[in-house]
Specification:
The structure holds two protein chains of two kinds. Chain A is mainly alpha-helical. Chain A has 21 helices and no strands. Chain A folds into two domains: 178 residues, no CATH class; 226 residues, no CATH class. In chain A, helix 3 runs antiparallel to helix 4, helix 9 packs antiparallel against helix 10 and helix 9 packs parallel to helix 21. The longest helix of chain A has 35 residues. The two termini of chain A are 25 Å apart. In chain B, a hairpin with a 3-residue loop joins strand 1 and strand 2. The chains are: A mainly alpha, B alpha/beta.
C-alpha cells in the first residue's frame, strides 16, 4: 500500500510540474493525471466509480448534443443521465440508510452487507457537477466537449473534487482547454489563499471543534450558556472549516493559473436568510436555484395559472431547501436543517418581499440588528445540522434556555474546554477576533489590495504570524490527528 | 516565474530565521536526546546526556533528564559491583521507566527508592539503590534483552518488569522494528528469538542545534512525514490489524499464550537463582478517569500475562485495581493531559505498589 501511495504522490508531483512546462494543448493530460492520482491517494478503489461517472456523463452529453433541441430523444437522454447520476449517488450515499430504515419491513439481516458501503470522497460534488453538465448541454448553454480527456480533467479537477465548489463547465472547461500561462499576481494570491485556508481549518475550526464536540457529543450534560456558546462556536467552526477548504481549493486553482470561484462571501454579514444563501456555499445554492428552484417555480406557476403565489413560494422553498439538506447526507437532521431554512426564506419573503427592500434606508443600527437576527436564526438551524439525531437537536434547543440559578456563569461557560480552560478560551476568542477582523477588512477594502499596498516586510510578518499560528496552535495544539474537513464527508 | 521562485526562497529563509528567533525567545524548546545501537539490546539512549525534555507546543511537560555514563536516565552512576548489604532493584520497561516525562530526581525509580528506604522491613540494608533500565516503546521481547543486560552487567536482588498496553504483541517480529529484539514463529507452533539488526541512529545531529527542528521533532513529536500527514488530517492514523491469530480470544491482539509463556520463562532463566522477579502490568487509565469500562484488549492482555505468570510461579501485579481504587478515593489524575504517561502522582502510586511487594516479599524474607 505504501508503494502505491508513494507512486501516486510521485505522479502528482510530476504531473503538476509538467503542467507548467507542457504545451497548452497537452496540459489537460497533466491535470487529469494529477487529479486521478490525488483522488487515488484518498480513495483508491473509488477511482473506478469516478471514472464510470465521467464516462457516463461524457457519452450522454454527446448523445444529447447529437439531437435537435426540441427532440424527444434529447430529453430522454437527459432524463436517463439524471437518473443514472442520481442512482449512483443513491447507491453510495442513501441506500445503506434506506435499507436500514426499511429493514424491519424487508426482514433483512442486521449485518446486511450493503449497509457497510463506504462513501466515495466527493461523490455529491462530482455527481452534481455531472448533472449540471448534462442540464447545460440540454439547454444549449454549453456545447458538450468532444475531447474525452479534457472532459475527464474537468470532472475530476483535483482542487475541487473533495469538497467543491461545484463549478460549472461554462466557467471551468474553457480554462482547461485553453490554459492561461503562469500569472505571477494570481499565483501569489493563490499562495495567500492556501495559507489563510490552512489557518482557518487547522487553527480556527479545529480549535473551536474541541468545545463544540464536548457539548454536542453529550447533549444532556450541559445547560444554558455552554450550549448557547457551543452553537455559536459551531457556526464559526463550520464556516472556518468549509470556507478554509474553499480557500485552499481556490488557492491551488489560482496557483495553476485558473480563475477559481468564490464559494463564500462573508455569509455571517448577511442581513437576511435569503441573502445568507447568496453568500453561503454559493456553488450549491446557485446549482439548486438554477436547476431546481426556478424550473419548479415556473412549472407550478404554469400549473396553477399564476394563482396562489404564496403557496407556490412555500412549496418551492421547502422542496428546494429540503433537497439542499438531503444533499449533505442520509440523516434526518440534515433534512430538518433544510426545512428550517425553507421556512425562514418563505416567511422572509412574505414579511418583506424583495421588491420593497431597496426603498428602505439602511441605518447602521438597523443593518447591525438584522445581521444579528439573521445570525441567530442561522445558528438555531445549525443545531440540527450538528446534532447526531433529531432528538439530540431538540434536547440541545431545550437545554439552551435552562439556567441553573446557583451556577456561576463564567466557570460553567468555560467548563467544556476542560483543563486550562481560561487559556483555551483566550485562544478561541483570539482566533475568532482574527477571523472577524479579516472578514471586515476584506469587506471594506479587499484583502488582496490591502496587502498589496503594504511594505513587503509588513506583509511577510503577517504571513509569518499565520504560519506560526498553524505550527503552534494548529499542528501542535492537538498533538493528535486532525479532524478531516467536514464537507469532505458529503 | 523565476522571480516568484526567488521571492519564495527569500520568504522561506525569512520565515525560518524568524521562527528560530521566536522559538528561542518565547517558547520552551526541548533539548535533543540521542540514541545509540547496542548489540543484542537494540536502541537505547546514548550515554552522558543532560538536558531539558519538553513536550507540547507551550511546554505542557517540561522536565530535566540525566543520562548516566551507562546510558540510563538516572541520578545514579551504575556500578557492576553489588555489595552484600545493599539492596539493589532493577526496574525494566519502556518510556514509563525511561522516565523523561518526570524530572529525573522525582520519577518512579527515585520514588521507589525513597519508599523502600522509609520502610521498616527494608531498613536493615545499609543502602537501597534502584536502577532503571528503560527505553522508549520497549516490548516484552525488548524487556527480556534489558533484563539479560541488567542481570549480566549490574546484577540486582530484585527485578521489576513493567509492562504496558500492547507490549506482548509488539514482541512479534512482524510488529517490531528491525533494530529491536523480537520473536518469530518457528513454524512448529513455537517461537524463536530474532536478534536486533544494526540500524544507524537517526541522522538528526546536524539539524538539532536548530530550535525549530527540536520544536517540531520533540515538542510536537512529528518525526515522520506520516505523522505530519496525520496531524494535518491528510493521513488516517494506523489502526491495529484485525483477525490475525486464530487462537486469540481478542482478535486485535496478535500475541499468543505460547509466546507470552516463552518470554516469561526466559525472564526467569535470565536472573540469578537467589534474586527475585515481579511483573507489573499497566492498565487503561484513561478509561478509569472517564468512568468507562477498561478496553477488552487490555483486559485480555492482562489475563494473558497473568495466567502464564501464574503457571510459571512468577509474581504478577496488575495495576487496574490500584488506579481504580485511588481514583475513587482521591479523584486525582495520574497521567498527563497531553499524553498517557504517568505524571509524578501516577509514578508514585506505581512505586508504592512495587515498594509494598518488595518490602513484604523480599525485605522480610531475606536474612540479614
Amino acid at each position: 500500500m505504501q508503494t502505491i501511495t508513494n507512486g501516486l504522490l510521485f505522479l502528482v508531483l510530476v504531473s503538476l510540474v509538467s503542467w507548467f512546462f507542457l504545451p497548452a494543448r497537452f496540459r489537460w493530460a497533466a491535470l487529469l493525471t494529477a487529479s486521478l492520482s490525488v483522488y487515488g491517494l484518498f480513495s483508491l478503489p473509488y477511482v473506478v466509480t469516478l471514472a464510470l461517472c465521467i464516462g457516463l456523463n461524457y457519452v450522454i452529453a454527446r448523445a444529447i448534443s447529437a439531437h435537435s433541441p426540441r427532440s424527444k430523444q434529447r430529453r430522454a437522454y437527459l432524463w436517463a443521465g439524471i437518473f443514472l447520476n442520481l442512482a449512483n449517488l443513491f447507491v453510495f450515499k442513501y441506500l445503506s440508510a434506506t435499507l436500514g430504515a426499511l429493514s424491519p419491513f424487508l426482514a433483512l439481516p442486521a449485518d446486511y452487507a450493503l449497509l457497510n458501503i463506504a462513501l466515495p470522497i466527493g461523490i455529491s460534488f462530482y455527481t452534481f457537477r455531472g448533472m449540471s453538465y448534462l442540464l447545460d448541454a440540454h439547454r444549449g448553454i454549453i456545447v458538450p466537449e468532444k475531447h474525452p480527456g479534457i472532459f475527464a480533467a474537468y470532472m475530476a479537477f483535483f482542487p475541487q473534487i473533495m469538497a467543491g465548489p461545484i463549478e460549472r463547465a461554462s466557467t471551468l472547461m474553457g480554462q482547461i482547454k485553453d490554459p492561461a500561462g503562469f500569472d505571477e499576481s494570481r499565483a501569489v494570491e493563490g499562495l495567500r489563499l492556501i495559507l489563510w485556508g490552512v489557518f482557518k481549518k487547522l487553527v480556527i475550526a479545529d480549535w473551536l471543534a474541541a468545545y463544540v464536540n464536548t457539548v454536542y457529543d453529550s447533549p444532556t450534560a450541559f445547560t444554558g450558556l455552554p450550549v448557547i456558546i457551543a452553537t455559536l462556536l459551531f457556526a464559526i467552526q463550520i464556516y472556518a472549516d468549509f470556507s478554509g477548504y474553499s480557500d485552499l481549493s481556490n488557492g491551488v486553482s489560482k496557483l495553476l493559473g485558473f480563475a477559481g470561484m468564490d464559494n463564500f462571501r462573508r455569509p455571517y454579514f448577511a442581513t437576511s436568510v435569503r441573502e445568507f444563501w447568496l453568500r453561503w456555499h454559493i456553488s450549491l445554492s446557485g446549482w439548486v436555484r438554477d436547476y431546481v428552484f426556478f424550473p419548479l417555480a415556473r412549472s407550478l406557476s404554469r400549473l396553477t395559472h399564476g394563482k396562489h403565489p404564496r403557496l407556490i413560494q412555500l412549496t418551492v422553498n421547502l422542496i428546494t431547501m429540503t433537497l439542499v439538506g438531503a444533499w449533505h447526507g442520509a440523516n434526518v437532521t440534515f433534512v430538518i436543517w433544510g426545512l428550517i431554512h425553507g421556512v425562514y426564506t418563505t416567511l422572509e419573503s412574505w414579511i418583506r418581499p424583495p421588491a420593497t427592500r431597496a426603498a428602505r434606508p439602511a441605518h447602521w443600527l438597523g443593518v447591525g440588528a438584522r445581521m444579528a437576527l439573521t445570525f441567530a436564526l442561522v445558528c438555531l438551524a445549525w443545531v440540527f445540522f450538528r446534532a447526531r439525531t433529531p432528538a439530540d437537536g431538540l434536547t440541545i434547543l431545550t437545554r439552551m434556555v435552562i439556567f441553573s440559578a446557583g451556577d456561576p456563569l463564567l466557570p460553567s461557560a468555560l467548563a467544556p474546554f476542560g483543563d486550562s480552560a481560561s487559556f483555551k478560551a483566550s485562544i478561541a476568542l483570539a482566533v475568532i477576533v482574527i477571523l472577524a477582523l479579516v472578514e471586515a477588512l476584506d469587506a471594506r477594502w479587499g484583502l488582496s489590495q490591502l496587502l498589496g499596498r503594504m511594505p513587503r516586510l509588513a506583509r511577510w510578518l503577517i504571513y509569518f504570524v499565520l504560519q506560526m499560528g498553524i505550527v503552534v496552535l494548529g499542528i501542535g495544539g492537538k498533538l493528535s490527528a486532525s479532524q478531516g474537513f467536514i464537507y469532505a464527508q458529503f | 516565474m523565476i522571480r516568484v521562485i526567488l521571492r519564495g526562497v527569500a520568504y522561506v529563509l525569512f520565515s525560518l530565521i524568524m521562527a528560530e528567533a521566536v522559538l528561542r525567545l518565547f517558547f520552551p524548546v526541548s533539548d535533543a536526546q540521542f540514541q545509540e545501537f547496542v548489540p543484542h539490546l537494540g536502541l537505547r539512549m546514548a550515554p552522558n546526556q543532560t538536558g531539558r525534555y519538553v513536550v507540547g507546543p507551550f511546554g505542557e511537560i517540561d522536565t530535566k533528564y540525566r543520562i548516566n555514563a551507562s546510558g540510563w536516565n538516572s541520578i545514579h552512576q551504575y556500578t557492576a559491583d553489588n555489595p552484600e548489604n545493599v539492596l539493589r532493584v532493577a526496574v525494566i520497561g519502556d518510556s514509563y521507566i525511561l522516565g523523561l516525562h518526570i524530572d529525573v530526581d522525582k520519577g518512579y525509580p527515585i520514588a521507589l527508592e525513597k519508599l523502600l528506604k522509609e520502610d521498616q522491613a527494608c531498613s536493615r540494608f545499609d543502602d537501597i539503590l534502584v536502577y532503571p533500565f528503560g527505553t522508549g516503546g520497549a516490548s516484552m521481547a525488548k524487556d527480556l534483552a534489558l533484563l539479560r543486560y541488567a542481570a549480566h552487567d549490574y546484577p540486582a536482588d530484585v527485578y521489576v518488569i513493567n509492562l504496558s498496553k500492547g507490549d506482548p504483541s509488539a514482541s512479534l517480529k512482524s510488529d517490531a522494528s528491525k533494530s529491536e529484539p523480537s520473536f518469530k514463529p518457528d513454524g512448529q507452533g513455537g517461537y524463536i528469538e530474532v536478534e536486533p539488526r544494526y540500524a544507524p541512529p537517526p541522522r538528526i545531529k546536524l539539524i538539532m542545534p536548530s530550535a525549530l527542528a527540536r520544536y517540531v521533532f520533540f515538542n510536537l513529536n512529528i518525526r515522520t512525514p506520516n505523522a505530519f500527514g496525520e496531524r494535518l488530517g491528510l493521513v488516517k492514523p494506523e489502526t491495529p490489524a484485525l483477525g490475525l491469530p486464530a487462537n486469540s480470544a481478542s482478535p486485535s491482539i496478535k500475541a499468543t499464550p505460547p509466546l507470552v509463556e516463552l518470554i516469561l520463562s526466559e525472564y526467569q532463566a535470565a536472573i540469578q537463582p537467589d534474586s527475585h522477579l515481579v511483573v507489573i502490568m499497566d492498565t487503561d487509565r484513561q478509561a478509569i478517569i472517564k468512568g468507562q469500562p477498561i478496553s477488552p484488549d487490555i483486559d485480555y492482555e492482562t489475563e494473558l500475562v497473568r495466567s502464564n505468570a501464574d503457571r510459571l510461579d512468577i509474581p504478577f501485579i496488575p495495576l487496574k485495581d490500584v488506579f481504580a481504587q485511588d481514583f475513587e478515593q482521591n479523584h486525582r489524575a495520574f497521567q498527563f493531559q497531553i499524553n498517557d504517561h504517568w505524571n509524578e502522582y501516577g509514578a508514585t502510586l506505581v512505586a508504592k505498589t512495587a515498594a509494598e511487594w518488595i518490602a513484604s516479599k523480599v525485605c522480610s524474607s531475606l536474612k540479614p
